Amino acid sequence: MITHSLSTDGTILSVQVPIKLRRRGGRKLIIAPPGAPAPSAATPSAKADPTIIKALARSHRWKRLLDTGHYATIKEIAETEHVAARYIGQLLQLTLLAPDLIETLLDGRLPRGIMLAQFMKPWPARWDEQRAHLQRLAEAAPTEPTDPATTT
User: Fold this and answer.
1) Is residue 67 part of a domain?
2) What distance in Å separates the CA atoms of residue 6 and residue 53, rounded to the nearest whole number?
3) In 3D, which of 148, 143, 135, 147 has the Cα closest to residue 113?
4) Mind listing the pLDDT tens digit for each residue in 86-133?
């Protein structure tokens, strides 16, 4: 059963979804609990950017470490993980993306030309503005990769 709760101060919404992960041919398959609607039968696209997926996973892990009090600051994480504190701060904003945008990232359905560097720049906080921002990035992205040998 999917449950949700709101913190007493109304700033944090927690959603819990019971799932099981099973390996199927090297991929992880989500097994929905009994009575829950089955996930889409479509297989994930092979176009999913592993760099973005890794960054998304790291950002959520770091946020969890901060939220649980394992680390008090980003600087402490940076010293332990041997990465720049600025990098951690930039990646932490991935935890604030709209759920449908996260699904788009994980499914490999990002428009061509969108890369991790664009997610590390400041993003709008509101989910509707995030969707519009992604659309603007997609419209501005080059449709064909440029060949450095042919440019002057």
Assistant:
1) yes
2) 27
3) 143
4) 999 999 999 999 999 999 988 888 888 888 999 999 999 999 999 999
